[in-house]
Write a structure and sequence with these properties.
Radius of gyration: 22 Å
Number of strands: 14
Largest sheet: 9 strands, mixed
Oligomer: single chain
Bound molecules: adenosine-5'-triphosphate, magnesium ion
Helix content: 40-55%
Shape: globular
Amino acid sequence: MSEHTEQDAQTTRIYFTGDCDGFADLRDALANHPELEVVGWSDHVAQAAGVLAGGHLNCVLHGTRAEKFPGGEVAAIREQTRSPIIIVASSTATELLEEALEAEVADVLVLPQLIENVVFAIRKAAHAKRRVSTVARSQQGRVVTVFSPKGGTGKTVTATNLAAAFAKYEQKRTLLLDLDLQFGDAAIVMGIEPEKTIYDLVVAPGELDIEKLAGYTTKHPCGLDILPAPLRPEDAELVTESKITRLLEVARECYDVIVVDTSPFFHGPMLATLDRTDELLVLCGLDVPTLKNVRLALQTLELLSFPSSRIRYVLNRANTKVGLSKREVEGALKVAVHIEVPSDRIVPVSVNRGAPAVLSEPGSDFAKAMMALAKTVMTTEPETKRSKKRISLARS
Ligand SMILES: Nc1ncnc2c1ncn2[C@@H]1O[C@H](COP(=O)(O)OP(=O)(O)OP(=O)(O)O)[C@@H](O)[C@H]1O
Ligand SMILES: [Mg+2]
């Protein structure tokens, strides 16, 4: 899981899975604790997959009645999140404790316990994780995910131009990752005919590491690397959540920024991506159906407990006169638009040429908006941005 912003760091977000004697009472007691935020609970790990993956949790407490270590359930939690796990048990079986020593869990608490002891264990586990994340963060890349719940809103155009701007004008080691797994077209928009795609990477034998990743990306002349979507839609299903989780972990070690293009759905791979997303660019347009879908998507993001402080709102084709204004969009969504991107005929022209506008037409209003977006994403947090000055590059 990614490290948290200062704002998030004030409360410790916890989630409960499993069950044991006294677990429900513990949950009730912790729900009232001022330093904790209980994001939710589920007896079965499988039912909690969405929140575990997208919830930016600081700690997962897993209850078990078993005398043995619940290895299968811990592995299932690990599939979804890197948050610290505390095992809460109702028996002191030595077998459980012995196996826990070897396992990747932060602590084992045998009930009953004083609530303050449990809170201390949770905070300690979360704090240790944050410290590791912060140290790692200084060398790790930033995951910027471009999303919109409606097709054709400009996700691919934004992701490709943003990635090209990072590589060419910000001198960042950039990976463009196409996670529109069925119909991704980022490579075509970049004018690249790749030999290998993410499909080839995930079906190749052996553990993924930096060297292996480098063998499957294609370099674009502007400097960025691209990992394209599978060539055939039916190959998408082999690109699973766990493969994406590992891919993003490895990519963060060798790139400054990873720009993720997406499809308009909250499927498993998208949830795994959200869990590692430092910044979510939500694209909106000046049309009622898109607005309706964005509003629904924001509700889903809230249900998934995705921190709103990581979302930046981009209004595409902001200058088109279609009877809907930016202010009305902001009012309907109850959010502030951070960045306005103008409609520009150079965009479809550059898409058809396979040459992103930031590279082929750097003087255009659209390209300038994309370059400004790249700079802002690299230098500010979305929340800070919202309260301060906003940029507007749309022609009025
Ligand atoms: N600011 C803009 N000005 C002019 N045309 C634009 C702009 N943004 C996007 N377009 C055009 O809209 C079309 C759709 O854009 P794009 O493919 O980026 O959308 P998408 O959200 O990725 O769609 P999908 O969900 O199908 O993947 C493209 O042909 C592109 O040229
Ligand atoms: Mg697209």
